[in-house]
Design brief:
Distance between the termini: 205 Å
Number of helices: 30
Bound molecules: adenosine-5'-diphosphate
Shape: elongated
Helix content: 40-55%
Structural class: alpha+beta
């Protein structure tokens, strides 16, 4: 048995007894490794395999019990070479039975299968790993057997194609799942791959459309075909990778690139993409055109800076560097194009970032601004030219912006208003310089223009800063438009001072002429050298009674024909015209006698220009019919006057307006014995009595100056050397304008009247004298009587009725005395013998005393005294009292029905004192008031006649007061009383 075992090439062993003593053949030795052989021979298995005994021990024990065992791929951790190693064995153990049937030991056969097992495990592991990797990568896998046409695929594969079947896959199903546009291509590609001739490789990209969800999955397929030695394909396997995202994003990138390119291409500017070195990687076509290149290739791969002039290159390099640092830059520069055209560029350089924010490229955009630059240069040039021109212009030139602020003014304008710069051209300057009458006009004109945006003009006055004199200017402005938009005004202003002056003169003259023409009472006709009517006035038409149609038509022939029908001798009329027209240097004057009796004075004179040229004929027609009539009437009346004057016994004379005697009638010559020549002018003075001459001269010159009638009595010397009294009256004669052109004087001899008066005066004087003495004595006796009566108490007064009689006698006598006194005064006055004995005295006291005296006599009235002023005067006390008595007596006399008389003393102007006597009686009408101070004047009327008197008192009063350098006056209203006053100078 042992021998059999030892000979067996397979590994065999025997474990004998309970000690498991081992015996093994050579085939068993590799299992023991380098460590366990030969120690194991004869040793206990439990010792040799101590590290695995807890595993195999029980198995051996069981075999000793008689139970054979067989185990495949038995795995143990065994130490055979000094380290623990996983070993796999196929082994079988069977009991070795003794003759008694007991089990003496174990016979085992063992094959080590570690190598096979490990390879198996490794394969499994790699398979698992691949599967795991494929699943992790979400790859789809397939395997196709072209012979059996069986197709398998992993889960992912099935998922994409929407296959639920866990087993085999129908190849047609897969083909249907490939997108239509890819299907043919893929079928062809597979067929190729299955053909040994093409190498068996298949790389394709296609879309799978899920049959239900219609979801598109783009996959990249990598497949390989396995061929037999006979080059027959037996296996076609591969993987599918989902590249949907990649493809889509690539597509997007492509699309966006296309888009970007399209944008760049469509730019009108020159657009370039530069790489990190500033090399042009893209240029748009417009750019090529702008740079005048042949094609894009000319520019691509060139450094951008090479396209620029040397002096610009640093700027370009700088801009690129800035761009690469992520900064944008913008600048303007000039450069010549490929063909050498000078151009101006507005350049933008900006960085291009990738998604990560890194600068990948630089974008350079150059805008061709040559035209703008050129045009702005041209504008600058033209503006300069404009300014130079404007400054040379003789008028003002200015420009205003859209808000009508003046933004430019030439030197002439600035100089005139005295400012250095247009910026000083403020509203303030306007208001200071523009004539106040035109400020509003100027403002309104500009304001309206800013609204209407239309041309405007106006004339105004503005102060010349140098002379401070206002001058006239004519402003004209037109709107400016810049690229269609209103930009303000450009204007001029012309100094029209001279024109204006001439114009206004001309206007004035024309107006004057027209006014004269129309207002003229002469007919005026202006005809040209050939007799054609130029103009005529209203009066011309009236004088000639010319029918309107002829006049309106200015038909000179018709006018002439009509004219001659009106005249008494048309031939003469025509002759004059002919003569005059042939002698344009002559004036003419003639009279036209109309058939209807009208007489017209015709003046003809040529209108000659300064240079002597003959313009026109001016005909003036003056209607002198009335004049003629009046002149002859005047002549007649003058003749009548003369004859009348000559016949008159009165001395009649006439002087001119200045008082120079121009006419004396015969009476004058007869009386004086002087000739006209001797009397004329002021010759007559020599016949005036020297006593009156001075007064006469004075009064006559007063009349000459004032134009008031002259009246005076004086003595004239007759041819016999006698002076005789004359009354002279001279009245002025005025022309229509009121001017005195003549004085007519009539001198009447009043010698006889004078003598009569003298006699009368003498008589009165005599009578008065005669009256005075007896009346005085009568009065004396009466008074004596009365005093006796009053003083003797024995006398029974009631029994004697003569007391009232005597009182009346006394009253009458007082009146008589007063009358006589007045008459005497009068005669004294007339003889200029009223002497005044002046002395200073208190006027108030005098008035008071006088009132007291008079109140005593007349009980019918109460005389009140109102003293508003106290004054001393210098004068004849008695005479002043006389005036006062006259006033008060009159007041009482002429207010019989009233009970009050007021005497008021007050201060008046010019340091005068006035005494007024006021009554409330019958009053005096206005007309009579002027005359009551005249001699013998008494108001006539029903009432008045009942009052006795001579009309002398006031006359004397006036004389007395005037001789005291005072004034006398009356104020009254008929029926409402009168106030008589006198004023005298106050004594300081
Ligand atoms: P006679 O002696 O007439 O009063 P006068 O010279 O005193 O003379 O006055 C002249 C005239 O003036 C009077 O006749 C009378 O008509 C008028 N007259 C004078 N005083 C007054 C008076 N107080 N009221 C009305 N009339 C008067």
């Amino acid at each position: 048995m042992v021998g059999v075992m030892l000979e067996n090439p397979s590994g065999m062993f025997i474990c004998w007894g309970d000690a498991y003593t081992q015996l093994y053949n050579d085939g068993f030795r590799p299992i023991l490794g380098t460590l366990k052989h030969p120690k194991a021979l004869g040793a206990s298995a439990a010792e040799t395999f101590s590290e695995i005994w807890d595993t195999i021990g029980p198995i051996f024990a069981d075999v000793l019990q008689g139970n054979p065992v067989r185990i495949s791929d038995f795995e143990v951790q065994m130490n055979r070479h000094g380290y623990l190693e996983t070993c796999y064995f196929d082994f079988s153990c069977s009991p070795i039975r003794l003759e008694n049937g007991e089990v003496g030991g174990i016979l085992g056969t063992i094959y080590e299968v570690s190598g096979k097992k490990k390879a198996e495990l490794a394969l499994q592991e790699s398979k698992d790993q691949l599967k795991f990797a494929i699943e992790a990568a979400e790859l789809g896998t397939w395997e196709f057997n072209p012979q059996s046409r069986t197709l398998t695929g992993n889960e992912q594969f099935k998922k994409w194609f929407g296959i639920n079947d866990p087993n085999e896959i129908e190849p047609q199903h897969v083909l249907n799942g490939i997108a239509v546009q890819d299907r043919d291509r893929i079928v062809t590609s597979i067929q190729k791959a299955l053909n040994h001739h093409f190498g068996g490789i298949c790389h394709e990209e296609f879309s799978i459309l899920h049959p239900v969800t219609k979801k598109e999955t783009i996959v990249r397929a990598k497949g390989r075909t396995w061929f037999t030695d006979e080059k027959t394909a037996y296996r076609f396997t591969g993987v599918l990778e989902d590249v949907t995202e990649e493809v889509v994003s690539q597509r997007l990138v492509k699309e966006s690139e296309v888009f970007n390119k399209a944008i760049l291409e469509s730019s009108p500017d020159c657009v370039k993409v530069l790489d990190q070195n500033g090399v042009i990687t893209f240029i748009n076509l417009n750019g090529v055109c702008l740079l005048e290149g042949e094609n894009k290739e000319f520019f691509l791969d060139r450094n951008w800076s090479t396209l620029w002039d040397d002096h610009t290159k640093p700027a370009i390099t700088n801009a690129i560097n800035q761009g690469l640092q992520g900064k944008s830059s913008h600048f303007g520069a000039g450069a010549t194009t490929v063909k050498g055209t000078q151009k101006w560029w507005d350049v933008f350089v900006t960085p291009i970032f990738d998604i990560g924010g890194n600068v990948v490229n630089v974008l350079a955009t150059s805008r061709d601004i040559t035209e703008q630059v050129m045009s702005s240069k041209k504008i600058e040039e033209s503006e300069l030219r404009f300014r130079q021109l404007a400054d040379q212009a003789p008028m003002w030139v200015w420009m205003a912006d859209e808000h009508v602020n003046v933004v430019y003014a030439n030197h002439q304008l600035l100089d005139f208003i005295g400012i250095a710069d247009v910026s000083q051209f403020t509203g303030h300057v306007w208001e200071r310089m523009v004539h106040p009458d035109y400020i509003q006009l100027v403002y309104n004109s500009f304001r309206d223009a800013s609204i209407s945006k239309e041309a405007f003009s106006f004339e105004f006055q503005i102060k010349n800063a140098k002379t401070a004199v206002f001058e006239w200017f004519y402003v004209k402005a037109v709107p400016r438009f810049e690229s269609g938009n209103f930009a303000g005004f450009i204007g001029t202003a012309l100094n029209i001072q001279e024109q204006r002056a001439t114009l206004s003169l001309l206007e004035y003259r024309t107006a004057l002429l027209e006014a004269f023409n129309e207002s003229s009472n002469d007919g005026i006709l202006l005809v040209d050298t050939k007799g054609a009517i130029i103009s005529y006035n209203r009066c011309f038409v009236e004088i000639w009674d010319m029918p309107e149609h002829i006049v309106n038509a200015k038909d000179d022939k018709a006018a002439l024909e009509f004219a001659i029908t009106q005249l008494e001798s048309p031939e003469k009329f025509m002759d004059t015209i002919e003569v005059l027209y042939s002698h344009p240097d002559q004036k003419s004057k003639d009279e036209l006698h109309f058939k209807n009796g009208k007489i017209i004075e015709r003046h003809g004179f040529p209108v000659i220009a300064k240079d002597g040229s003959f313009y026109a004929w001016s005909w003036i027609f003056r209607d002198i019919t009335d004049l003629k009539k009046t002149t002859s009437a005047l002549k007649e009346s003058e003749e009548t006057f003369r004859q009348l004057s000559e016949l008159m016994p009165e001395k009649v004379s006439r002087t001119d307006g200045e008082g120079n005697a121009v006419y004396f009638n015969q009476s004058w010559m007869d009386y004086t014995g002087f000739s006209f020549e001797e009397l004329r002018n002021w010759g007559w003075e020599k016949v005036v009595h020297p006593d009156e001459l001075e007064g006469l001269r004075l009064q006559w010159s007063k009349s000459l100056a004032s134009g008031q009638n002259f009246e005076m009595e004086f003595r004239l010397l007759n041819r016999n050397g006698e002076y005789r009294w004359h009354l002279c009256r001279s009245n002025p004669l005025r022309d229509e304008t009121g001017k005195i052109n003549n004085w007519l004087g009539a001198v009447t001899e009043i010698q006889k009247i004078k003598e009569e008066e003298q006699r009368k005066g003498d008589f009165i004087k005599m009578v008065s004298h005669e009256l005075k003495t007896p009346v005085t004595s009568v009065k004396g006796y009466v008074q004596l009587l009365l005093s006796m009566l009053y003083s003797d108490p024995e006398v029974n007064m009631s029994s004697i009725p003569f007391k009232p009689t005597l009182e009346r006698v006394d009253k009458q006598i007082s009146r008589l005395t007063r009358l006589i006194t007045e008459m005497l005064d009068l005669s004294r006055l007339e003889e200029s013998k009223l002497e005044l004995e002046k002395e200073p005295f208190d006027l108030n006291t005098l008035v008071k005393e006088t009132i007291q005296d008079l109140q005593h006599i007349s009980s019918s009235h109460h005389i009140s005294f109102i003293q508003n002023f106290r004054a001393r005067i210098s004068g004849d006390r008695d005479r002043i009292q006389q005036v006062l008595i006259n006033f008060i007596n009159n007041a009482i006399k002429y207010s019989p029905d009233k009970k009050l008389v007021k005497v008021i003393i007050r201060e008046t102007e010019n340091n005068q004192v006035s005494v007024s006597v006021k009554d409330f009686g019958i009053g005096i009408n206005k007309l009579d008031q002027e005359k009551v101070f005249e001699r013998f004047y008494r108001v006539t009327g029903k009432k008045e006649t009942t009052f006795s008197g001579f009309g002398i008192g006031l006359y004397i009063a006036k004389e007395i007061i005037e001789r005291h350098q005072g004034t006398i006056s009356v104020e009254s209203k008929k029926g409402q009383g009168a106030t008589f006053s006198f004023s005298l100078p106050v004594l300081n």
